[in-house]
Amino acid sequence: MRIIISAGGTGGHIYPAIAIINKIKEKEPDSEFLFIGTHNRMEKDIIPNYGIKYVPLTIIGFKRKLTLKNIKTLSYFFKAIKEAKQIIKEFDPDIVIGFGGYISGPVLYAAMKLGYPTLIHEQNSILGLANRFLIRYVDKMAISFPEMLNYVPNEKKVVFTGNPCSEYALEAPKMDKTKLGLTKNKKLVVIVMGSLGSTAINTKMQKMLQLFNNKEYEVLFITGKEYYDDFKDLKLASNIKIVSYVDEFNSLMKVTDLMVSRAGATTISQIIALNIPTIFIPSPYVVNDHQLKNALELVNREAALLIEEKDLKGDIIVRQVDAILQNKDKYDNIKNNLNRLIIKESATKIYDLARNLIDGSK
Question: Is pTM, for the whole model, over 0.70?
Fold first, then answer.
């Protein structure tokens, strides 16, 4: 199989793409890949480290309000379509798959115009801007939340698969907690606001972390690499550990009893797959407030708790953590409700969808 993958901007788009690449390699080891991303976002550094050929295109995102800057954005968009057509023709893939981010718009549109099979995946509970544009043109769309079937313009194109990162998370080995200075037998609460961290949350956590001093459980706070220096001199009890970043985060999640987290789609898929009770603090700074909508998909099913960032005051996090960990019935109820949301073999389902599109095109 020869596959072009396009995704970019955030880990929420990039890591599902990597999960599918790994699944295709597992199913068809001789497959060849080409990844088309942006010239200046995180995928340009991440993807080559996986030994995947990477081609950047220069493109910028659309502004949500009327501005003359969008004229420049449109010019980049049309230029990217032209360049993508040339790249696609030279690689001659069996299929082109997009995982969101504005780079996937011109790439998947170019593939459609050239007559190649096309598939896109939507990680969130609402359509992103690129996928909202592409749904009219691609052959199939895979979705992570079943409720999206009520909002897409063409249900026949849409297949509920879940997020491929969920299957990837299940395959990770458990982490040895002692490597992070944690004990093996105490319950673990992990507080993390995405791979990059959050300025707003970190400012609040400098005071809130002290409220966890000498609890019977341990707390691991992951600051994000740019923020660690703000915390390294804090005087905290031995049950609180602070790190800037954790490699193999899925392995850490497998030994986590409770998470406090943003509500990105990939994170939610991992939380569901690994059955981790979670308190969500959705980012209010994302397009269409999609993290809040993602979180509510679980909260409304009593499978998670929610604190909006505007309400993050005083000891609210500590009170909610204690309320879950000290109430076995509540804790077990959340886990049972999470278990009902598990979608098994998501990556395999997307692989099968891609393979059927390829076979149907011959």
Answer: yes
